[in-house]
Amino acid sequence: MKNNNIAVFTTGRDGEAWKVLLEGIRNKATEQGFSLSIFNCAGSLDISRKFDVGEFNIFRLANLDHFDGIILISSTIICKEVERELFEEVKRHSVPAVSMEIKEEGLDFAGIDNYDAMRDMIEHLLDFHKYESIGFIAGPKGNQESLRRLNAYEDVLKEHGIKVHAEDVFYGNYGFQSGLKAAEHFIGRASGLPRAIASSNDEMAMGLIRGFEKHGIKVPKDVAVTGFDDIADAVNYEPRISSVARPRVELGSVIFENLIHKIRGEEADNDIIMKTEPVFRESCGCWVRCGKSFKEFRHDYFVNRETNLSNSAILNEMTEKLTDCDTFDEMLKSLKDFIPFLKCEGLYLCVSPEVKGHPNSIDSPDFMGRLKQYEKDAVLAYPKKMTVLAAYKDGNYFEADDFDTEQLLPECEHTDEAKTYLFSPIHFQDRCLGYAIIVNPNFEMNGQSFYQWLMNVNISIENIRRKNALNDALQRLEEMYIRDGLTNLYNRFGFERFSVNLYDMCRSEERPLLILFADLNKLKQINDVYGHENGDVAIRTVAKALVESKAEEDICTRFGGDEFILMGPDYTAKKAETLIKTVEATLQKANADHQYPYKISASMGYYIIEKDSAISLEEAVDKADHQMYQAKKRYMEQL
Fold first, then answer.
1. Which of 126, 246, 300, 511 is deepest in the core (most CB within 10 A)?
2. How far is 360 from 480, CA to CA, in rounded Å?
């Protein structure tokens, strides 16, 4: 990896909060001449899902010793198993590291005061609005950031003599859909709707409001709702949402600057806690003029609508084109038109060498064994080498060499220029295929669109990989059908298929065709005295001698147990005699080299189908067989 490089770990490709935070980090990194390597995925709460396993695998890619510092945006990693694994891995390396929003012993901390900010919000609902019944939408159970906000809610209610019941709290996952589910939960409460509901973030608050709307429940008239994070959509929502403003850009800058001090061995804070405060708007019952004017809102609404429709059309077209691709060359040709959609400086698609060139070669002596091993190793494993399936910059593809996975980047990116690299997993379910590198990404790009773009690429790569593997398997089965397992020569089925083609070609092109018939001498005696394993050695030795002696266009067949046929075009009698002598010399050398307790030899006879001959292939084989029999007779007479 390059020097002056900071690793950033985060999940979630959608949502404004992390984008703004990353922009604050990048601004300060650029100013200080540092590169950022952002390891990002769309993993969620359920690590038991194969998809999530494949997504979170990107966190295992980097050797953390190669970085100057590490930033964990821990609040986005809602899966506790993954969070714990990442924390332990970071602490195993002596690299300055900071965890954002989640406190972890042994790591620096940076975040906002979640507790006091939520206290202020709940006290506002109780003391200013006099709402006596308040529910709460928490984040995932065990999420530290959510827990601090939930504790504030519970503490304030207890101080006001209000008991918190289990039905008062709904646990979500910070997404809009959680808010919709929360609406159904509170509507179905035995004690009825609470008068107000505080949410752990704005996304769930917006989902809650829409969920109530479907049932005719008005906010804030029937139920007051508050959020947390103060994202742009919350400011302009209907109704505008009361929330907690978070200085995300400033926090990103402060985190990075403090980390740089640590890297340089300068004095720096171990804990950074930034204060924030609630912003009260329509959703809690405070009628405050804020946000965009109606004219601005209409303009932005239709711009966003047109952008989303355009993105959807582009992604649908991309899906259709990639679905039609049977090879990686076809895929890259189709993909090129859709890379500008990412609005980035460059793109690398890095895959395991076995993805591009499948390991299941038909030449492998253990085809099925290698296939099973590949299928096993492909899960949760980045190989030592990466193949660059696609390297793109300035509107064009270019060649990039394979590189050591530990280097993370192709050689052409190892420069002194400070850049931001977004690493995202390429996988199918839990199968690790590789990773994508987005160079200097645009964080303002719609996260869901980027996610769909990358999923299209993932699925296309896996489809082509499977087609290649299937073709290899079919080819292997084909080879097994027409090949002799002991010698790898054609068997009778192979002879019937290819000998006719060769015969027809020589007839049409008026070329002579040699039929050479060979029979291994004394195979029965070798088997009886030395065992069938030695008989197999003798058979393979004759087969090898024929293959080493033949011309390129010739074909060899194991015609029976100890019988072989060699066919080849453009032979004369003199050339055929030379071939026989070459085979005999090769067998003599094998006997001398290996010092077998028996002598391996073969009786051979041939027939040449002249270019103007009308003889059939079957008749020519019989004539060559007859000549071989005469040679066998002479051999036996000499014993």
1. 246
2. 14
Contact between residue 137 and residue 198 where contact means Cβ atoms under 8 Å apart? yes
Distance between CA atoms of residues 465 and 434, nearest Å: 12
**Does 468 map to a domain?**
no
The Cα–Cα gap between 17 and 7 comes to 19
For residue 87, is it within any domain? no
Q: What is the pLDDT of residues 323-359, one digit of tens each?
A: 999 999 999 999 999 999 888 999 999 999 888 764 4
Cα torsion at 337, 338, 343, 344 (round to 10°)? -80
Average pLDDT of the segment spanning 417-428: 92
pLDDT score of 379: 55
- Residue 149 located in a structural domain: yes
101, 71 Cβ separation under 8 angstroms: no
pLDDT at residue number 445: 63
Domain final residue pick, 294, 329, 351: 294
DSSP state, residue 340: G
In total, how many domains does the chain have? 2
User: How many other C-beta atoms can be found within 10 angstroms of the C-beta atom of residue 219?
Assistant: 24
Q: Is residue 400 part of a domain?
A: no
pLDDT tens digits, one per residue of 38-76: 999 988 867 778 888 899 999 999 899 999 999 999 888
The CATH number linked to 584 is 3.30.70.270
Structure tokens at 535: 């008989």
Cβ(179)–Cβ(210) below 8 Å: yes
- CATH number of the domain that residue 169 is part of: 3.40.50.2300
* Residue-wise pLDDT tens digits, 503-554: 999 999 999 999 999 999 999 999 999 999 999 999 999 999 999 999 999 9
Closest CA relative to residue 102, chosen from 58, 136, 148: 148
With H, G, I as helix, E, B as strand and everything else as coil, classify residue 264: coil
Range of the domain at 283: 112-250+267-294
Q: What's the confidence (pLDDT) of residue 362? A: 40
